[in-house]
Amino acid sequence: MPSLASQLTPSDVERAKSWIQEMYQMADSKNVGMVPKFIQEEATLNFSQTAPLKGRAALERLFTWEYGACANIIHRIHDVQISYNHIRVQVSATYWFKNGAQRSMEYLAVWHKTPQERRASRVDLDGDFMGIFQELTSFGGPPPL
Length: 145
What we know:
Blueprint: H1 10-28, H2 34-38, E1 39-47, E2 53-54, H3 56-69, E3 70-82, E4 87-97, E5 102-112, E6 120-127, H4 130-140
Parallel strand pairs: 1-6
Antiparallel strand pairs: 1-2, 3-4, 4-5, 5-6
Helix pairs in contact: 3-4
InterPro entries: NTF2-like_dom_sf (IPR032710)
Organism: Agrocybe pediades
Protein name: SnoaL-like domain-containing protein
């Protein structure tokens, strides 16, 4: 029996890669409109060691808080693995904060969606976000969780 990954067409793979590139480009522009464009209404965001954040409105508040503290953000995509029901992305991100600080980190993002779906139902982020959150909090106060 073929695996789900082998059932993906070249068009599915290209569609998923394009989705990832467009989503991260919009995130780098600090446009909170990224949330409704790429994330379902009842989606869940899971950070490594925190409680899940549920619902598009909560995610919009989180990204508004994050973008408000940052002068610039650049994500670099290192690897993309596509299966039928999720996209795994190895990412590095550099944040330039409005207070002058700069921090970089690497993490794994798993976007739960098929190549045909426009919006993800869940996002799992695995990495050490502690330093990033410390800088965000020093500028913008506690996260709106």
